[in-house]
Amino acid sequence: MISSNVKQLMAEKGLTNHTLAARARISADTVARTKSERIRECSLDTLISIAQALQVQTKDLYCESSEMKTASEYGTKPSFLAIELGIIIKKKRLSIPKLTQKKLALQSGLEQAYLSKIERGLLQPSLDELIRLAQRINTTASHLLKQVEAAESQKHVSHASKNKFL
Questions:
Q1: Residue 10: enclosing H or E segment and its boundaries?
Q2: What is the mean pLDDT of residues 53-82?
Q3: In whole angstroms, what is the distance from residue 138 CA to residue 128 CA?
Q4: Residues near 27 by beta carbon (within 8 Å), at least 6 away in sequence
Q5: What digits encode the pLDDT tens for the residues 104-158?
Q6: Does the pLDDT value for residue 14 go beyond 70?
Q7: Whole-model pTM?
């Protein structure tokens, strides 16, 4: 899904691998990996850089367009905070060797599809679920929320500094 979304967004914007690589400050080979079956070799930081270079949100790289349409049909869209929490949970999970999404879901008493939606920012976990997830990824719910808060603060700081120069 990520590879097809990256290809589509690059085509819409008329970007080549080299142009996107320069904008994202990564190698053209890394861009090629995101567009191929070797996508698993790319880090989350790389995907964030690519999303920024494409001027889209990270979720736009891994969400199916139908999921986004469904959310917009109800007048809602994933919030920045839900997306950020999902990214943080996924980063922590990936930092633990051999902890797959399926294993984490099972250990936390969740369905894998539900955890997938949490990691993509499409759903927000309940407090109980967040606490169980945090324990399984060797952190606390409060630490996860502090990271989300920090990201939100950073978003406002960078937004304010951009407007300062306009």
A1: helix 2-13
A2: 63
A3: 16
A4: 21
A5: 999 999 888 889 989 988 888 888 899 999 999 999 999 999 998 888 877 766 5
A6: yes
A7: 0.52
Alpha-carbon torsion angle 147, 120, 49, 74, nearest 10: -100
Structure-token pair, residue 54: 């494409």
Burial of 13 per CB tally in 10 Å (0-12, 13-18, 19+): middle
Q: Are 19 and 53 in contact (CB under 8 A)?
A: no
Tokens read off for 130: 């967040």
Q: How far apart are alpha carbons 96 and 73 in whole angstroms?
A: 36
Q: Which helix (H) or strand (E) segment is 89 a member of?
A: helix 80-94
What is the mean pLDDT of the segment spanning 39-47? 72
- Nearest partner of 59 among 28, 94, 85, 41, judged by Cα: 85
Tokens of 111: 């369905």
Token representation of residue 97:
């060797």
Kindly list the distances between the CA atom of residue 147 and the CA atoms of 4, 34, 88, 139, in Å, as whole numbers in the listed order.
30, 27, 8, 11
Reply yes or no on whether the pLDDT at 77 is more than 70: no
Whole-number Cα distances in Å, 49 to 61, 143, 159: 11, 24, 17
d(CA 118, CA 92): 13
